[in-house]
Amino acid sequence: MRSFPTSSIRLLLITVATTVILSTPALAQTPVPVCCMATAISDGSYLYIQGGFTSVATLRTAVPQFFALDLLVETWSTSTPPWTWPPNVGGVTPPASNGHSMALSNDRGNLFIWDPFQPAAWWTYNIGARYWSSYSIPRNVTKQSGIRNGVDMNTGNVFIPGGADNGTQMIMNSPGSSEVPLTPMPTTLLPTPVVQASFVWSTYRNSFLHYGGQSIAGNIANPNLIEFIPTTGWQALATTGPSPGDVSAYSGTKMIVFGGAGLNGVTNADIHILDLPTREWTLGMSANATQARRNMACATSGDSFVAWGGESTLAIKDVTPIVYDMRNNQWTSQFRRNTTLPMPAEPSTPISTKVESRQY
Fold first, then answer.
1. Measured distance CA(122)–CA(307) in Å, rounded
2. Range of the domain at 186
3. Contact 258, 248 (CB under 8 A)
C-alpha cells in the first residue's frame, strides 16, 4: 500500500434517475480553469463544478463560477466538451471559495455545498427550481481545506466526517432540519484527524468509503481504507494489491483512482482500479506525465472516466478535459459513453439542443 495518499477530487456514480430542467448548453462559453473546486456527479449524466482557485498573474484567486459537463452527450472531442451553465433564477449565489465540497441529494433534486470558510457554511442548489439558498451551522466547524460531505442515498442524510471540533467529530444533518448532531470520529481506525480524504457513497456496499488524505496537524499520510455504515458505524475494509491513494468510483462496483499527490507535493499521473467484490487493486495505463494533477474534478459515464482542471506541481491545468477508456484501458481524445460501438468516422461535436426533460 502506497504510503503517500493523494488529494485528488473523487466522485461516485449512482444508478437511479430523475427528471430535471437545465439550461441550454452554452457551447461558446468556456469555464475558467481552476483547482480545489467543489464537485458532484449525477448518475453519469452531469459533472457539476463550483468555485475553485484560478491563477491571476502570480496570485491565486477564488472564483464563484458554477457550471456542468454534460456527460449524456454520447460522443465528443476533448477539444470541444459540452459545457452547460445551470441558471440561477433567484436567491444568492455562493461566494468565491475553494477547498470546499459538494454532494448530490438522494432524490437527485439538490446539490449540497459544505463550505467551512464562509459564515453560511451550508449552501443548497435546487436543480429543478434553479435557485440557491444557504444557512449557518451552529457548531464549531473545522476550518480546514478538504473537509468532505456525502449523502446517504437511502435516507438522504448528509454526513461530514471531521466537520466539527478540529476534525474530531462528524456532523450529520437531515436536509430541512436545524439539528446537526455530532458523533466522534473513530480514533482506533484514524488515530489523527485528516483532511483531503475521499468520502463517497458506495451503492454496491450500501455504505460510505473513506480513504486517504493527510493529518490536520503535521505532515502524516493516511493509508487507510475504512467504511462508515450509517446504521452500525465505522469499520476497517481490507484490500489486496498495490493501493494508490485517493478514491473515485465507477458503476458502484469499482473505484477509480487517478492522479493526486504525495506528501512531498509531487503530482501523479497513474490510474488504479479497486474491484469492490474482490477488494483487489489493479493498475491501469498511466497518463502522460504532463497530465499529472491533483485537486481536480472527475467523473465516470458509461465506459469513460473524465478528469478536468486541478493543478500540477507548478501550475493550474488548462480547460481541456482528459478521458480514459476504461473498457479498453487507454487514454483517448474522444469521449464515448459506449466504447463497444464503432468510432464515428469524424470526431463529433457537442449536440446543441435545449434540455427540457433530461433523465438524470
1. 26
2. 19-359
3. yes
